[in-house]
Amino acid sequence: MLMLSRTAASLYWLGRYVERADFIARLVEATVRLDALSATPAGEAAWESALNVTYTDEAFAATGARADQASVARFLTIDTGHSGSIVQCLDMARNNARAVRTALTREAWTAINRAWLLFNSRMRPGNAMATLNLVEAVKAETRGFEGAILRMMRNEAVWFIRLGSAVERADNTARLVDVKYHLLLPEGEAVGGIVDRDQWTTILQTVSAVTAYRWLYSEGLEPRLVIDLLLTRPELPRSLAACVEESVEMLGLLGKRTGLQGGADRMARARMARMHKTRTPEVIVGGLHEWLSAFIAENLALDRAIAQQFRFI
Amino acid sequence: MGEARAFDEIWGHGGPTNPRAPLEMLAGWIAETPREELARRLEAAENTFRQLGITFAVYGDRDAAERIIPFDIVPRVFLADEWARLSAGLVQRVEAINAFLDDIYGERRILADGILPPDIVFRNPQFRHEVVGIRPPHGIWAHICGIDLVRTGPDDFFVLEDNARTPSGVSYMLENREAMIRLCPELFRNFRVAAVDSYPDRLHETMRSVAPPGAGSRPVCVVLTPGHFNSAYYEHSFLADSMGIELVEPADLVVDDDVVWMQTIAGRVKVDVIYRRIDDDFLDPVVFRPDSLLGVPGIMSAYRAGNVTLINAPGNGIADDKAIYSYMPEIVRYYSGGEAKLPNVETYRCREPQALRYVLERLPELVVKLVDGSGGYGMLVGPTATKQEIEDFRAALIAEPHRYIAQPTLALSTVPTLTEKGLAPRHVDFRPFVLTGRDGVQVVPGGLTRVALKEGSLVVNSSQGGGTKDSFVLLPDSPQLQAQSQTLGGMFQQQELGS
Amino acid sequence: MRLIVEHRTRYRFSEPQIRLIQCLRMTPDDTDDQTVVGWSIDVDCDARLRQSRDGLGNRQAMLYADGPIGAIEISVRGEVLTGDHGGHVRGTAEPLPPEFYLRETDRTVAGEALGAFVGGAVSGLLGADTIDAATRAIHGRFERIPYVEELRDAATTFAGTTATGREMAQMLVAGLRTAEIPARYVGGYRQREGRACAPHGWVEAYADGEGWIAVDPSTGGRVDERYIRVAVGLDTAGVTPVAGSRLGQGEEMLDVALIVEQARRQ
């Protein structure tokens, strides 16, 4: 039986929203740590950049609150007034999961539902500890979801979820690098100084890449190497290279199942071919921001092509 | 009011210390399992239901948008011979319902023979002229029936209501059983309980058996839900899931050239059989309510052309309508040739002057129902009503007698139920599910027991505070009929060791 | 009489539609009074038409068209031979007995005033006389207007002093039913010399022993050879020539052009 287009759309968005919730949780966690290590102005800069990374800076500005830990952490986790908080992402994920209940295993559904229920309890991040507890719980549930997906039958349901995750993750990582790279250091701090180092460590923590970095690079922490890791090393699951490869792989499996190829397949394969030729030093010389902007735009175009190819309506 | 104590299905009339003989062992289990242990298991069951999302939506209340229906840990039990009699009555009744529908939308012999007054059919909005002239495959209209029964004594069962449109609740039958097997395994070791888990397979087989003639050997069957915000969505997804078929929403279906298709990731696929959980009114905006946003435009044309089977058939409301209900004994007799094995609750048709006079004299004793109301609304329960409520109904009855029927207040049976104050009898009703396919009628050995959780209350509707119980049907010659000396404390310890 | 019908229905959409599904009740049937010599429905885009008969015996066609559709025109062209049997309707497809047409619908709730009015008009009369009397009464009570923005239900129309021909017919249907006379709404065409044409509606009512009798409250008399009967229903909604559903955004605009004329001798 061929999958319903609507089901495919819901699974794809389920994958995207779970990934987004997980990413925001990691970002909040890493920023709390960074904030704790830094002097006040640097700490606030970190929270502002967290808003930039998640596309929520404008929505936050509209609240009129100061960008300190308490308010930004609250805004990014439990605020239901905008679509960029963890609770809203989980709500959307759960709505999509509910709409395709039959395509999921009980285990996968239960993981989503449990993550969603976390926010139904009275848990309210007031201090850093409470925030860390909450994001830790979210991460545990999204990990549970990922595990459940891996244990599901290898069928198109899983492929659409993973395709959604891959597209979302590519956007998140690109955005993270773009914002952090341009983050202004507080006055008086030297490039390569402690605060700068901490910023890059935060990035690595956000994408769970601290260990990978140590494995792959013998040098100490260097921004160009962090960029190299996050852009071009497919060994790291959250690198752009890995996301690009995963998109091609998932589309390939779906194409085999349906017997059809389309615009999304071609676009994803062309992107992978270019990615394989990409060298980090050239990207930096040519302008990292421009390169990332083009990547983000192309990722969006791929998202559109997927919707068209599988008739998401 | 001085109401006599109702018949309790486990304790009989004798109370906890003197239960009905065949159920002594169960009564012992209830008596000896510590309350806290029952409460703990109840909580575990409800947590599972919440995690699975077995909820119903309460409209207009975002925070409480999803509630679970309360569950009770003490099962309701039918003895094998009780069940055999019930089943025979259910089969007879559902056969008659199908025969009636096939006749009323076809030749209308029952009207020609003067069994029913024609106006209660023709003036009834539930008689859908839109399906006149259509004959579904094998003449089956009500593939899935839920017959609501009440009990007043060991052998006294009555049909309270027939549901031949889209009876819901079967997912509770299955999930309640799952929970009971997990939480009270000792009961299943000591009783031989008929399994209900074949229901999805039987339903799927029923669907396949009524596919349109041109559908081929592997007809495509789907469940059609209004969408995941519908209060019964869990059940819709549960059924599709356990049958291994697609759960579709209206937007997934397209009718083209009198054929129903579903949109898939690789194009359109023809659909042959649709178990639709959308009411007639909303099914097809071209034919029924034009303002329906839930429907599938054109689906009735595909149905009329014989290219798709709809389960249940549109138009079935005329068979389970409250006005028709009072004629069910005559309808059953007309089509089966014998007396109804399952009696109706005695019903006064207020449209008849004599009956109206009787009802007006005895309003405080009777239950008065709107012919076209449902879910416990538009109803007067005389014994618990205020003077004002009774007078309001009296005026309504005099103004429009044809819209009402009245019934005596029944002493509904009770089953021991775990309440905040411990175990206490609570009134129950019962909805068994009956499937009709090409090869005949079958009754699934179980059903949905609804329980009124409020002391003395007779209203079991989930929208008004009712809960559910598992319903055990015991297999013939269950050992517990003889073995009565075993202590149930022993059963409880086995459970502790096993878990 | 030999009547020629040309009926064009044009829908334009402010935004292209993804899909259209329409039920066309635009096909007359043969009866003892009318013989359909030729009849065709043409659609100006790629569409599929499926003929069938509904539960009341009307002929209908389902139209299925895929988008993008910016506009669609449905052209009906036909020729019918009609006769005059004094309003007696015979030879029609009747899947349901007359008693069915006592059923009240949302649009034909009569209300006390209309019920009393028709009751008064028919009191003391029997058979077909009741139907003629009620028809004259409705005809005499209202000033006929050609058009209303939105068709009103029977009780609402009765509260006023003006009515369109179709509203009068719907009132008459509702009123006759309160007097326990089976009545139904008929949609079709009427030829009028030198006048602009619009789809017309009238009434068929059942007199025991005489059968269905067709009357037109906008003339006050019985239906004759200038009428072409297309569809019957419980009320105006039941005979809508084009009832449909579209998938797409935006507004729709409707133009109808109708010519009903007597065929010239060749």
UniProtKB/TrEMBL annotation, chain A:
- Highest taxon, organism lineage: Bacteria
One Pfam family named in its UniProt record: Alpha-E
* Domain DUF403 stretches: 3-310
> What is the name of the protein in this document?
DUF403 domain-containing protein
TrEMBL record, chain B:
Q: Which Pfam families match?
A: CP_ATPgrasp_2
- All copies of domain Circularly permuted ATP-grasp type, residue ranges: 75-452
Instruction: Look up the domain of life of the source.
Output: Bacteria
| Record-linked PANTHER family | BLR5612 PROTEIN, SLL1039 PROTEIN
**Name the UniProt record assigns to this protein:** Putative circularly permuted ATP-grasp superfamily protein
- Give the species this sequence originates from: Sphingomonas yantingensis
Where does this protein have coiled-coil stretches? none
From TrEMBL, chain C:
| SUPFAM superfamilies per record | Cysteine proteinases (SSF54001)
InterPro entries named among the record's database cross-references: Bac_transglu_N, Papain-like_cys_pep_sf, Transglutaminase-like
Q: Which Gene3D superfamilies match?
A: 3.10.620.30
What range(s) does the Transglutaminase-like domain occupy? Answer: 157-219
Q: Name one Pfam family in it.
A: Bact_transglu_N
Indicate what this protein is called per its UniProt record: Transglutaminase-like domain-containing protein
